Amino acid sequence: MLREPVVLSDTEFDVLWHHDDLGEHHTVLHVPPAEANTLEVEHALYREGVRVDEALEALRLLAFADFECFGWIAFNREVTLPVVAATAGRHGVFALRDNGHVRIDALHGDPSDRLVACLPELRPGRGSSINARAEEASTSRPLVELMQRSRTGVAKLYAAKRDRYGRRRRSESFLTTIDCPDGRWLVVRYVDNRGQGWVHATPAARPIIREWLGRIGD
Q1: Per the confidence metrics, is the pTM higher than 0.90?
Q2: CB 3.0 to 4.6 Å from 171: which of 19, 179, 184, 216, for a disulfide?
Q3: Cα–Cα distance between 171 and 83 in angstroms, integer?
Q4: Which is nearest to 168 in space by CA: 47, 79, 84?
Q5: Could you give the CA distance from residue 48 to residue 1 in angstroms, rounded to a whole number?
Q6: Where does residue 49 fall: left (phi above 0), alpha (psi -120 to 50 degrees), or beta otherwise?
């Protein structure tokens, strides 16, 4: 696995991704198709000191992860970064795409911890948790007021895992974090064990977000 971080241009990432016919790019790592010679790109990476074999291994892990957490984090109106943290067996990889480049690094620990750590530092929002039946969410005054608040940032976070047949299964629900002037809130739709759909919103410290990522990933 990676001994040091690797930064690939979109072209280099695309060439290496298709080196082993890994199929479509990861959900958050779609890059333009490269019009480049594979051997020339790989030789250039070798000359730059990139361990291509390790980079290829990391891409294979991203393509066939056992468990992953991923999403899009908007730090403000101008900057939104796609990120993914994934594991397969004892190994893990973290990747982030920014400004025409993909940065890939080894991951040690839980993917949910790494993904949540990417969120800007912010205190939990002020107020009590909100629960509304899914069919009543659009008329829930506290929920409507929360969703209409001004925002300094937002994120959408997902989880995915392999089923026993090796098929990738993305979580049916996702988490939305909303960064308001008074702090961060988490909003999630879920279905309880009786089949009732709910919309839940709560002031969100990082441990709460990690807990919910685990719940939607189960």
Answers
A1: yes
A2: 216
A3: 16
A4: 84
A5: 19
A6: left
99: tokens are 């400004």
pLDDT tens-digit map of 159-198: 999 988 989 999 989 999 999 999 999 999 999 989 999 9
> In this structure, is the dihedral angle defined by the CA atoms of residues 109, 110, 115 and 116, taken in order, positive or negative?
negative
Q: State the Cα–Cα distance between residues 174 and 177, nearest whole angstrom.
A: 10
154 neighbors 177 (Cβ within 8 angstroms): yes
Distance spanning both ends of the chain, measured CA to CA? 27
pLDDT tens per residue across span 59-97: 999 999 999 999 999 998 889 999 999 999 999 999 999
Residue with tokens 């939305």: 176
User: For the chain, what are the domain ranges?
Assistant: 6-111, 130-217
CA-derived radius of gyration, the chain: 19
Q: Which residues pair with 177 in a beta bridge?
A: 155, 186
Give the 3-state DSSP-derived string for the chain, with helices as H, strands as E and coil as C: CCCCCEEEEHHHHHHHHHHCCCCCCCCCCCCCCCCCCHHHHHHHHHHCCCCHHHHHHHHHHHHCCCEEEEEEEECCCCCEEEEEEEEECCEEEEEEEECCEEEEEECCCCHHHHHHHCCCCCCECCCCCEEEEHHHHHHCHHHHHHHCCCCCEEEEEEEEEECCCCCEEECCCCEEEEEECCEEEEEEEEECCCCCEEEEEEECCHHHHHHHHHHHHC
Residue 138, both tokens: 């659009």
